From TrEMBL, chain B:
PANTHER family, per the entry: PERMEASE COMPONENT OF TUNGSTATE ABC TRANSPORTER (PTHR43632:SF1)
Localization terms from the record: Cell membrane
Topological type in the membrane: Multi-pass membrane protein
Ranges where the ABC transmembrane type-1 domain occurs: 27-223
Record keyword Glycoprotein present: no
Source species taxonomy: Bacteria, Pseudomonadati, Pseudomonadota, Gammaproteobacteria, Alteromonadales
Protein name, entry field: Binding-protein-dependent transport systems inner membrane component
Family: Belongs to the binding-protein-dependent transport system permease family.
Primary residence: membrane
């Protein structure tokens, strides 16, 4: 089982202390709801665990991943996929964005092709494949970004406010994809101000408050997830 | 338009379309020298632009301003500097590059590099940080992510290349001083236009001017098409 562990972390912006904590870990088969007010540091925490931002103090290490090649300076990068609140789509078509991750997947070609096709169907992007990604609506952009990550079958995934400004259909489609990932054992950290469809999947909450992070329930068995808890089905339009 | 003007333009066009060897030799010198200068300078300048945009090191502010300043140095001053370096008594005198195409290439490299560095730095600075982060978090290597960023910035980077190429292809001061305007060897379009105009041979000057004009139109319309397709990025 793969895991990211953060020990004795302190995060500051200049002299302002964002938070300080002794230990947090995100493992496969865990789904965690990250809560906190605006500016409390939810995005910073996610980026830190994904290796995109260094903590002011403390260390973050991983367990269970394949050894990092010597030429990779940052061993955290690429271990957990972080999806921005406003996802970045590369200049080009929807198909280009989906195909970008194909060489980065640790799977056979047939498996990648099959997962890509399934992701297109789940995110209902079939009719948009040749459209420029820049012309998509907010919900379609988020669906494409999650579909792009879904193809990779990441061990760990961080979703930053994934359903903000989304209509019900897009929320349902995203829920289906995220539920599939959960079923496949992807560990997820989902940040959201309020409870939503996705936070219903979470078994634990990390609350950023008063420059600390409260975890509830405080311990969580890292047992393999049993898929029967969630009814998974494709959601069709209308 | 007077008949004299029409006759001049007709002569210029006939020089171009009859493949007049003098005219096309000048065009060939111009393009071979400027393309060589651009080709040698392009990659190192883009790397420097990237470093100045992203790396944090002591002296970065000074280096950025120095590059900006060198952009606005007149080409004759760069010509003078290169001339002094290449003259027999100069530090590079042993190369014997004065009044040769190699000397012209060196001069044009010095004109081209600051434009490329400054414009590519501006382009790299404008990149959306999320492009880099997304590529890296998806597991792409450093090199693949750099390539992705360059792809995302293809329009501003192409604009930098076109601006640098236009500047060296049309500069007259440095080419005149370092090249010496020797027919068939170092005579390029701008120096030939200056010479033919002073001699009163306007037909050849216009013919060469038309080549530059057509090139400018082709480059800028191509760039305009690319720019037109690029859509503003929404959040």
């Amino acid at each position: 089982m793969v895991k990211i562990i953060a020990n004795n972390i302190e995060m500051r912006f200049g002299s302002r202390l964002l938070y300080r904590f002794d230990r947090l870990s995100l493992a496969q088969h865990q789904t965690i709801h990250l809560q906190g007010d605006n500016g409390s540091g939810k995005t910073t925490l996610m980026k830190m665990l994904a290796g995109l931002q260094a903590p002011s103090l403390g260390e973050i290490h991983t367990e269970g991943f394949a050894p990092t090649p010597w030429w990779r300076r940052n061993p955290l990068l690429g271990k957990a996929v972080y999806l921005h609140q406003h996802p970045y789509l590369f200049d080009g078509s929807v198909a280009y964005n989906l195909n970008y991750v194909q060489p980065l997947c640790d799977m056979t070609e047939q498996e990648i092709a099959s997962r890509t096709q399934t992701a297109i169907e789940m995110a209902q992007l079939g009719g948009l494949l040749n459209q420029r990604a820049a012309s998509l609506s907010g919900g379609e952009r988020q669906r494409l970004a999650i579909a792009r990550a879904w193809i990779m079958r990441p061990h760990l995934l961080m979703l930053d406010e994934p359903t903000s400004n989304m209509d019900k259909l897009s929320q349902q489609l995203v829920l289906t994809m995220v539920s599939h990932l959960k079923q496949q054992g992807t560990g997820m950290l989902i940040s959201s101000h309020q409870s939503c469809l996705l936070t219903g999947l979470c078994e634990q909450t990390w609350q950023i408050q008063n420059q600390a992070i409260q975890v509830s329930p405080s311990s969580l068995d890292e047992r393999p997830f049993t898929p029967s808890q969630q009814e998974l089905r494709y959601v069709t339009a209308n | 338009m007077s008949e004299g003007w029409l006759a001049l333009i007709q002569q210029a066009l006939s020089l171009l379309f009859s493949l007049d060897p003098d005219v096309w030799s000048i065009v060939s010198v111009s393009f071979s020298v400027s393309l060589a200068a651009l080709a040698i300078t392009l990659i190192p300048s883009m790397i420097l632009g990237f470093v100045l945009a992203f790396a944090r090191f002591p002296g970065r502010w000074f280096a950025t301003n120095l590059v900006q300043t060198t952009q606005s140095i007149p080409t004759v001053v760069i010509g003078l500097l290169v001339y002094l370096m290449l003259t027999r008594m100069g530090p590079l005198g042993d190369l014997k590059w004065l009044f040769t195409q190699k000397g012209m290439i060196l001069g044009q490299m010095m004109i081209c590099a600051p434009v490329l560095i400054a414009m590519s730095q501006a382009a790299f600075t404008s990149v959306d940080k999320r492009a880099w982060e997304t590529s890296r978090t998806l597991g792409a290597s450093w090199l693949r992510s750099v390539w992705l960023v360059c792809r995302e910035l293809k329009v501003p980077l192409l604009m930098a290349i076109v601006a640098a190429f236009s500047r060296i292809l049309t500069e007259v001061g440095c080419s005149m001083m370092v090249g010496g305007n020797i027919a068939g060897v170092t005579r390029n379009i701008p120096t030939a236009i200056a010479l033919e105009t002073s001699k009163g041979d306007f037909a050849q000057a216009i013919a060469l001017g038309l080549v530059l004009l057509i090139l400018a139109l082709v480059l800028n319309f191509t760039l305009g098409t690319l720019r037109g397709r690029a859509e503003p990025r929404s959040l």
